[in-house]
Amino acid sequence: MIDFSDKIVQILNHGALNLGLGYSLKIFDVMDKIGEPAGLEALATATTLDSRYLKEWLGIMVTGKIITLSANNQGEETYYLPKAHADVLTRRAGNGNLGVYTQETPLLTVSAMEAIQKKFSTGEGVPFSNYPRFQAFMSQLSNAKHKQVLIRDFLPSVDKGRLVERLKQGIRVCDLGCGEGVALNLMAGAFPNSRFLGLDNHEKAIAIAKNSAQNLNLANAWFKVTDAAQIKGDNSFFQKFDYVTAFDAIHDQSHPLEVLKGIRTMLKPGGFFSMIDIKAATRLKNNLDHPMGPFLYTVSLMHCMPVGLNDKGSGLGMMWGREQAEKLLARAGFDRVDALPIPNDPFNLHFLCQTLNNK
Ligand SMILES: C[S@@+](CC[C@H](N)C(=O)[O-])C[C@H]1O[C@@H](n2cnc3c(N)ncnc32)[C@H](O)[C@@H]1O
């Protein structure tokens, strides 16, 4: 057992590590490419960063045991990022990339710390406009999460491979809460015979998604600014889709039950809905050994829960958990819900929902 004050000292040190700077400034990627110990000036040249700032940051990394310090034959101090560290901290790590997450706590702190402190007294939500850099960050996360595995592993796992066969032939798909369209554009690129519609209520994100689809010459991808809570009453969506996805988007909704009911009406009879959400339990006592518990509850507190409280919303938060999710999906009227593991993704669950008839 470590003494509690030792534990706090460790927390202070680990919390101060500032890995997010190394990730966002691509210092880790550059050091990984160099692949051997390098001196300060060589690193400054390779990263095109100021050597005095770099030196101070390297002090953090070396004492934090992220980067190792040695000396070359001329006695100059050199810095080396071990390959095993680069394997999880750099962009090449694909969906094993934990580096991208190191930016999240600083980003949410800068965006919302003051507002959250105030809302602790009032219980109100924090407007999405407090998070101007959130969508761009989500795109980085989405790219890391989806690029290697969405087409290769995830879609083939749906309905025992039958979904992919139908995607190849040509079906209608909607991605709800699509953000800047990373997942949707990947799917549209992989299945040119199918038609894809991305919905989000964030105008700027939709504009960026459209632009990316254009740059990728995707003729089968469309995007529309839409409030997901209003879909249910909108005839233009009624029974139009064979497959609907929501990646990491339902727990952020102010009115998740309305949204889920809307999704159910969008589906053709027999259609599927894939809700991808954080793998956690609803009761705190069942999350005691969650490998990322403190991190995920923090992201929830600093973003997901307060944005979900807006518009007199339910504020589910990211850690709403499997039991609550299953209850809500049942209340929305899905005939069948299976909570499935996701290949190569230990942190999310796939709620595969089916609707047999949808009045
Ligand atoms: C955590 S982000 C996930 C984005 C994207 N699916 C991804 O995985 O990168 C949640 C998304 O839900 C969108 N959203 C929140 N409330 C919404 C609503 N009422 N209608 C439509 N989209 C909404 C947000 O704008 C945001 O893009």
Describe it.
The structure is a single chain. This protein is α/β, with parallel strands linked by helices. The radius of gyration is 22 Å and the shape is globular. Helix 7 packs across helix 14. Strand 4, helix 11 and strand 5 form a beta-alpha-beta unit. The model has no long low-confidence stretch (mean pLDDT 96). It has a 7-stranded mixed β-sheet, with helices on both faces. It has a 3-stranded antiparallel β-sheet with strand order 1-3-2. 45% of the residues lie in helices and 17% in strands. The chain folds into 2 domains: 85 residues, Orthogonal Bundle (Arc Repressor Mutant, subunit A); 253 residues, Rossmann fold. The longest helix has 19 residues. Bound molecules: S-adenosylmethionine.
Using brief descriptors, characterize the structure shown.
three-stranded antiparallel sheet; seven-stranded mixed sheet; 17% strand; binds S-adenosylmethionine; globular; Arc Repressor Mutant, subunit A; 359 residues; 15 helices; Rossmann fold; alpha/beta
